[in-house]
User: Fold these one by one.
Assistant:
Number 1:
Amino acid sequence: MYELLFWRYLDEIYLNNQEVYEALLEKEEVEGLAILQVEVIVNRINSVFSDWERVDENSWKNPKGKGAFQVITTPQSIKIDCYGTEGKTMNKLVDIMEEFKCPLYDPQVPERYDEMNE
């Protein structure tokens, strides 16, 4: 499994990304993070991956090849667990989240890919 996590900081706020990640995993509310339009984001993911099989409310699998992913949400975050998913598919998920101004935090590295890091 490969984990992708997304959140958005409020203006003028920047916290320790690893601590934010750990708090969000525990489904804790983090002061300084924006409340996301979770339903709108999940609908956007569903429309971009409309040719994938929707296994349940939060899971998709590629009917034409390998790969599946599950979306886990809190009011402040979107976590996507990827199973055998190709890099181009993960990049598409990252692009969707960029539309909502939520840069990727990659806990495997660990690194957040945003303007504070460039």
Note: The mean pLDDT is 95.
Number 2:
Amino acid sequence: MAPTNVPDAVPEIERATLRRVTWRILPFLMLAYFIAFVDRVNAGFAALQMNHDIGLSAAQFGLGGGLFYVSYVLCEVPSNLAMERFGARIWIARIMITWGLVSATMAFVVGPVSFYAVRLLLGAAEAGFFPGVILYLTYWFPRAYRGRIVAVFMVAIPISSFLGSPISAAILNTDGMLGFRGWQWLFILEALPAVLLGVIAFAILPDGPAQARWLAPQQRAWLQDRLSAERASVVDGQAAPARHLSVWQVMRNRYVLAASLIYAGASGASQCLSLWQPQIIKSFGLTNLETGLLNSVPFGIASVLMILWGRSSDRKRERVWHTALPLGLLALSLAASIATAQLLPTILILCLAVTATYTVKGPFWALSTEWLSAGAAAAGIAQINAIGNIGGFVGTYLLGVIKDATGSYPLGLLPLVILSGLGCLLVIGLGRGRAQAAAPARA
């Protein structure tokens, strides 16, 4: 895998240290995020049976799907600050065990109210995992490597849908086993790995390089010195814009708010498509298994391209256009869905849209962490992810409402077209403004 892609020109200690760090922590974090995302969006496949069984309309399903992000947003910043207080090992393990247990209870919802309640609890349980990991990666990787590292870590999202889609569809076929419906088995079986991985996380994850006994003393010293020097340095000739701010100031900081809006388009589309795409594909009259196989195609393509795009961003040391271009593609592809009502063009459009939502993630998070100082990173990253995920609530809920009102899935995607288009324009404008501000400093 060698995801750090360390150039031959760098010192040997840098190559050896970062490769060892990558292999020791990244595969486990990817696996954990894989399971997290499966548990977050498996309601999309369960809905193929569950909605009828417990009497959910499209609008009610959309509301329940979106309520996850309400509690997720409210608990995001406190969770990230708690990780800094209690340490990554304890807090990441706590998150994983809690969300696994809550996810299993989805098997026992009996109507809209219980569905809403468990989705709210699931959002609260999982809150802080993703921004916590993004913060955790800044403890280990210098700035120049973060675009590709974040992209490699986040490839777990499309892989979770690529592999999880046919698995979820197959589990639905266990319908009637031991008296449970297939959708109930889906929630139970896919929740168990989260609890197990939480226990493993407590045993194997170090809080930071200082506790990494698998690094040689000189490697630990090099990595700590490198990261300390970067935290004390400037970004692009300027001090990091959120440096030395209180939590409240970070939450109101214009860079944090701008990054949140930029992320809302990509995050909203990602969450919305992950939850609704199986029903969109199923609407063409396919079986559950056919739906699962076709649903995996866009995510398989995105899994490859997001890594390549993240590496391109690092190699060229460019973040703004690597963030803006996928957002523009996302807006255009979702808008194009209105022009077709056939299966093949719809799958091609979904491939473009899903790929865009994932290729943007590596460059965007690398850009965001460069905007934040070490002191502001915990609250800033959590706040960006929290506000950005409001797009997940808006997109998921409105798609259900619009589908009930019009009978059209493409019309339900229009709010995401607007949100991702605004994000594209904002990142270009903000990037140009910072470049112009940095020019006198370089001179």
Note: The radius of gyration is 21 Å.
Number 3:
Amino acid sequence: MRKQEYAIVDIETTGGNASHSRITEIAIIIHDGSTVLERYETLVNPEKDIPPSIFGLTGINNEMVAHAPIFDDISEKVMEMLTDRIFVAHNVNFDYSFVHHQLAQAGLKWTAKKLCTVRAARKIKPGLGSYSLGNLCNSLNIGLENRHRAGGDADATAQLFSLLREWDDEGVIDQMIKKTAQDQRLPPNLPQEDFNALPEKPGVYYFYNQAKKVIYVGKAVNLKKRVTSHFTGNNINQQRQHFLRDIYGISFEVCATELMALLLECTEIKKLWPTYNRALKRFEAKFGIYQYEARNGYKYLAIGKVSKFQICIHEFNSLHTGINLLRSLAEQFEIDHRFCKYSRPEEGDFFYTPEVKELPDPLLHNEQVDNAIDFLLHNRPSFAIIDKGRSADERSCIWIENGHFHGMGYIPRDTAIHDPEDVKSYVTLYKSNQYIEQLIFAYAEKYPGKVFFNKHFTK
């Protein structure tokens, strides 16, 4: 039986992700765990221009690769050297994604077990200031020539690998290369202990970059399972590759229910506006209902786009929702439809059609508009949702005030709740938005038995 061998790989590319970029140089060093057995290195014609920023980093330009082989021409050689060997690289998922993608484009199906020397170094030599290849070479007295070239970086990685094997008294590397090794799927800069601390409970998790700034907020029914899902698979799109490289830490907050996790996620995204959150940013209110008075003394209600410089009475995610509410208010308070605008008017705009019935009495009309606004602001339901807690010793509570999310928190199970003030004293205040309110009202309609202090939701 042949001794286990390793293919230590480094590549240079035209960019940061395999789906839109191409390999410009590749070096493969075959290693048996202690000795280098074989070495292969070549420039590769990427069949596309090399950006100036990449030339500045690597020194590889279009002229240098113009007469180099394209990847298809070397694919069988690369496949031969990688087959039945452990794929080793510094930040292994980056190199693996490119090689896997370009072999597949050449019609070759290949997979391999992987070993990341960043993660191995973190485990075997903990406490170093940085685990970038350049800084590790400085810390561990490894010679590094031709930095940011495939051959130079591969040689340095091979030396690092030999040292790690020598220092590995606890069999860390053998554990890491097992197919089921969990940490092999983790981003290279994420400490294993951050991932290990995640519980299998509902809650909200936060990803941090190197500057300890939150770059992503997510909610989960099972925190451990959900975070793991970010790191599995071989997705090569640009956003995911950049996302994984930017993750340097994780924190979390356990929530009693999925609803509370959803609410916390929404408010945290609104507050922190993380770089990689996109989905919930769509739910920022885009339209509002406005009231204005024309020069003739009549008050109007109008739907328009939300502006930083104008205060609206109520906000909506969609124009359709706003129009429906305005129509409902006009019918409930008998407001003449001619004074309801379904797009934001210019100041002083006045709608009047002479051939229709005469205009209503201005005092009565304005009173009807004021009543509609007062109803919208002050007569929406207030209620509590009381649910299970994070443990058997508590209950969770969510409070809605005049139709707006007021806050949420936890109440000791042995505490008696007699009125709304008892609930409100236990909640942490949060900002509301229409998306959050939709979530809460839908939940209250579905589970009326968990709603207290409001007759709208019958038990």
Note: Residues 150-167 form the longest helix (18 residues).
Number 4:
Amino acid sequence: MNFNLHDSLDAKAQRLLNALEIGTVLPIHRHCNTAETYILLRGKIRVMFYNEIGAETESFLLDPLNGNYGVHVPIGQWHTLEVLEQGSVVFEVKDGPYIPFQPEDILY
């Protein structure tokens, strides 16, 4: 569930809180028009980067209790996340306007 902190989907900065629960499914995807930054406020998640054939290339365990707060996802980077703790909340920032996923931006 998202709580948008920006005024509209056309805003130049898309800032939102994203509440995530175990079992949340986010397809491996990319953003071709913007980079993205995740700052984990509570809980625990793993963010994974992939190459264009779907092989995992990097993994980042975000856990504020261990000093691992965030990750920057470069523009065009294939990525997804896995929620490891109930009640996880991410502060997410990317350039606007909001552009929904296009079929070519979902790996599978």
Note: The radius of gyration is 13 Å.
